[in-house]
Amino acid sequence: MERLHFGKQNLIFYPPSNLSFRVKPETKIDKPQRCLIDNLWIAYNKIPRDNSYFISVVNSLSHYFTNKNEDKKFRFYVVVEGRLPGVFQTWTEVIDSIKDFHIPLFKGFNDLNEALDYARGTLGPNHFISPALRHTTRSSFLRYNIQRDTDKIIFCGHCSSMTEGFKRLNQTIEKLETERKK
To answer: How do strand 128-129 and strand 86-88 relate by DSSP bridges?
Structure first.
């Protein structure tokens, strides 16, 4: 039988059979998702219950979701236009900083040094740094030589669309608040 690996766990990929979980026809899932669902289904229906197998499947599921979302997130953000311009580590801090701001402007980075250099260049030498980042040293994060490793630098390619979305959201909020006051 074929096995799929999720971190330290490896699960059996079951071919479609009577043991497999049947998803709705309109639901499209890929091979790793099918493997996880089938193993959860088998762990749920196994008699007697095998808790170690169930925990292994849940750990595989958490590993799958963690890896799936890691590629899409930036590790650091610089808010240029917002209520509190500065360098932040989490997306929730960015949301708090740009909430209710008319035209927010921010950029995502995967390297702290790059984010700090960008903030220094756009905001000046005295800029806000998130409390979570104040206690970290610059050398504790991966540092790239900007002249040599330009292919490793990732800039936020969707910031303008996110900004447009925030503009529409703020306009909708203002409209609803004025209607509520009437």
So the answer is: parallel
Any idea where the domains of the chain sit in the sequence?
A: 3-70, 76-181
Name the nearest CA neighbour of 42 among 65, 10, 11, 66: 11
Alpha-carbon gap, residue 68 to 71, rounded angstroms: 7
Q: How far is CA 179 from CA 12, 101, 132, 171, 182, in A?
A: 57, 20, 39, 12, 5
Q: What Å distances lie between residue 6 and 43, 148, 151, CA to CA?
A: 17, 34, 28
Which residue reads 């250099």 in tokens?
117
Q: What is the pLDDT of residues 36-52, one digit of tens each?
A: 989 888 888 888 888 88
Helix (H, G, I), strand (E, B) or coil at 177: helix
